[in-house]
Request: fold
Amino acid sequence: MTQRLLALPQDRVARVGVDGVDGAGKSTFANELARSLEALGRRTIRASVDGFHNPKSVRYRLGRRSPEGYFLDSYDYPVLMEALLDPLAPGRSRRYRTSVFDHASDSSVSVPEELARPGEILVFDGLFLHRPELQDKWDFSIFLDVAFDVSIARCARRDRGFGPPDPRATENRRYVEGQRLYLRRCDPRRRATIVVDNNDLAVPRVVSALD
Reply:
């Protein structure tokens, strides 16, 4: 996989998306991928969809337990494209920001604008990255395929406020059913450049790849 990323054109910025459900290991995978690329001489830009949440008034407009709301309203895609993904597209300004909003404080953040260099690779992790709005934004995309029994248990260990480790628990319905909506409607396993079985964090395994 790293060799395929190194082969991406160096006369522009390449945009790589690391997709997967909650608890799939996206941030860890993306961090390790960025470190590997840096070690091989390619500069990277690390960012996450977590820097582009909608305010609570939008995220919960359908109710705090709504799966549809989780899928549709969690993130501000127009701002994500305006601040980060579109400026890094071929022929654009390359002036970008990696974050605009802090969901914990429910407020905007002032992150300085930066100028990307040709040849740099954006490694971007997050949920729902193969939605229709984002499908043409990636030069290369990775979907981490993890069973909900595994991923929700990881979330429960990582975040005490997340809920019980059982994906069938009422407290987890918003997240699990919201992500199932995404899997059904957007079929990221089919759209991703590479699908990785990440049920075992120590042994990620490529299970399919587009030419």
In short: The chain has a mean pLDDT of 96.
